[in-house]
Design goal:
- The chain is mainly α and 205 residues long.
- Helices cover 61% and strands 0% of the residues.
- The chain has 13 helices and no strands.
- The longest helix has 14 residues.
């Protein structure tokens, strides 16, 4: 009795091969947003695609595609992704800035090496963006970074943002800088009340 040959399908016939990096990169420029979403999702298989997706995020007009890009970037999180997202904190597009902050908050270890430079940036708006990010960053040093802002930053709005953050995540080490803040800005009454409220939230006297 003759043996039957196994009926194997040709190799690769069960499922189509994944698109390669070049094809997915080209698809990011497709006119259809659905095609761009697919490309942004599938690029998650390529760790080297992080900087490319950061660049595309800055020019992508569709909110739905931006959302997929951000999800992919969070999955790819790396120092290169953080380096690609940080310049977006200077964007004139508030939605883009906020999206970048939300993504960066998911990468605490990768963000840490950049914190000192962000908090020393000459642009107070960038420092405010950094403080807002740190206020929600799941990193054990975040309260100390915000306390240092309250102790040293010369811009009232940056300090106010840090006070708001400390009201949520501050610890006892923030109490002294908060107490001293009113003396640094004696002509700004609201900062005294904000600092006192933060101290109460922390549990200080």
């Amino acid at each position: 009795m003759a043996l039957k040959k196994p009926n194997h399908a040709p190799k690769g016939a069960e499922e189509p091969p994944h698109a390669d990096l070049a094809a997915l990169t080209a698809a990011l420029a497709a006119p259809e947003s659905a095609e761009r979403r697919r490309a942004a999702r599938d690029l998650g298989a390529f760790p080297e695609a992080g900087p490319l997706l950061c660049t595309h995020l800055a020019q992508e007009p569709a909110t739905s595609v931006r959302a997929v890009i951000l999800t992919t970037l969070i999955r790819l999180k790396s120092p290169a992704v953080v380096a690609g997202l940080l310049p977006l904190l200077r964007s004139e597009d508030s939605a883009l800035r906020n999206a970048a902050i939300e993504a960066l908050q998911e990468m605490p270890a990768e963000v840490e090496p950049h914190v000192a430079d962000l908090l020393a940036d000459s642009d107070s708006d960038v420092r405010i963006m950094a403080v807002n990010m740190l206020s929600l960053l799941p990193h054990p040093k975040a309260p100390d970074w915000l306390a240092a802002v309250v102790a040293r930053d010369a811009h009232i709005n940056v300090c106010a943002a840090a006070v708001d953050g400390l009201a949520e995540i501050g610890n006892e080490s923030a109490v002294a800088p908060l107490q001293a803040l009113a003396a640094r800005f004696p002509d700004v009454p609201f900062i005294r009340f904000a600092a006192a409220a933060a101290i109460r939230r922390i549990g200080g006297s």
